[in-house]
């Protein structure tokens, strides 16, 4: 009996150590930055250059920026929780080939940006990037916010607080707390997570057109979460899932082309609405 008690106490002690370590190191378990600073010129991204943004307290943030062709939107892109902008260079190339502008922001600690990442800082820095586009003269309706994985939570919070032309969520989650519970079901994570990214709480304030892209074989953020985000979102909204795609490879299954078509349809609809508005006074004058 005493042996059983000793074993139980030892197991409890190990569990307690692991739980405390997970609490203390939780941001190390959430963010996996590559701090290397690389210029977009290294990837021959036509028209793109490095842009340094300065947060209110002086933190220097690295971004890649290329302006849009006339009549095209600018994608304000928030990346996932690992790597740096070099891992998104081919995505940026595809977007630029469509004539889109792109502003990709490196979170703190990623890709040459100073500091350490946190939800509060990521969301504040997203607003800084948004304002940089506005200061450049990019109209709110021409800013399409793109959130990749953990960046989907950043994108939702930005779109909830600012006017944008559209929102694209790439493998979104209901909250990081929900993702953590799936990843660590044996730990009491819910009360103790700092960076919670409560997407469903902010989503009701998002009124811009929404597109969700999700791989049905995603083992990091289950497609059921993407569907739950879709159900909770305001219209107009669309969701496209890819049966053979995982977490970060749905671009190999047509997601870029699907997004391009969605943006084109968005702009066509807007143009028709403007034409109808412009024709309305003439129609009123012609009435007998």
From TrEMBL:
Domain of life: Bacteria
Domain Serine aminopeptidase S33 positions: 73-177, 199-248
UniProt feature coiled coil, ranges: none
Record-linked Pfam families: Hydrolase_4
Gene3D superfamilies linked to this entry: alpha/beta hydrolase (3.40.50.1820)
Protein name in UniProt: Serine aminopeptidase S33 domain-containing protein
Source organism: Hyphomicrobium sulfonivorans
Classification lineage: Bacteria, Pseudomonadati, Pseudomonadota, Alphaproteobacteria, Hyphomicrobiales
């Amino acid at each position: 009996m005493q042996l059983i008690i000793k074993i139980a106490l030892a197991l409890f002690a190990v569990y307690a150590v692991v739980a405390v370590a997970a609490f203390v190191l939780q941001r190390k378990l959430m963010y996996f930055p590559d701090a290397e600073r690389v210029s977009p010129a290294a990837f021959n991204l036509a028209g793109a250059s490095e842009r340094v943004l300065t947060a209110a307290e002086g933190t220097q943030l690295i971004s890649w920026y290329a302006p849009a062709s006339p009549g095209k939107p600018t994608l304000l892109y928030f990346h996932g929780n690992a790597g740096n902008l070099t891992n998104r260079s081919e995505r940026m190339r595809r977007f630029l080939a469509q004539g889109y502008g792109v502003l990709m922001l490196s979170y703190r600690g990623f890709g040459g940006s100073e500091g350490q990442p946190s939800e509060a800082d990521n969301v504040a820095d997203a607003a800084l990037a948004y304002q940089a586009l506005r200061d450049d003269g990019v109209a709110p309706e021409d800013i399409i916010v793109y959130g990749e994985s953990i960046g989907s939570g950043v994108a939702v919070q930005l779109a909830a607080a600012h006017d944008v032309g559209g929102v694209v969520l790439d493998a979104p989650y209901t909250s990081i707390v929900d993702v953590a519970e799936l990843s660590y079901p044996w730990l009491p994570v819910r009360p103790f997570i700092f960076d919670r990214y409560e997407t469903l709480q902010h989503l009701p304030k998002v009124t811009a057109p929404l597109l969700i892209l999700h791989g049905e074989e995603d083992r990091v953020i289950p497609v059921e979460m993407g569907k739950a985000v879709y159900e909770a979102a305001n219209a107009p909204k669309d969701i496209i899932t890819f049966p053979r795609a995982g977490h970060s490879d749905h671009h190999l299954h047509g997601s870029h082309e699907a997004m391009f078509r969605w943006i084109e349809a968005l702009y066509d609809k807007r143009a028709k609405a403007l034409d109808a508005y412009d024709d309305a006074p003439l129609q009123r004058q012609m009435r007998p």
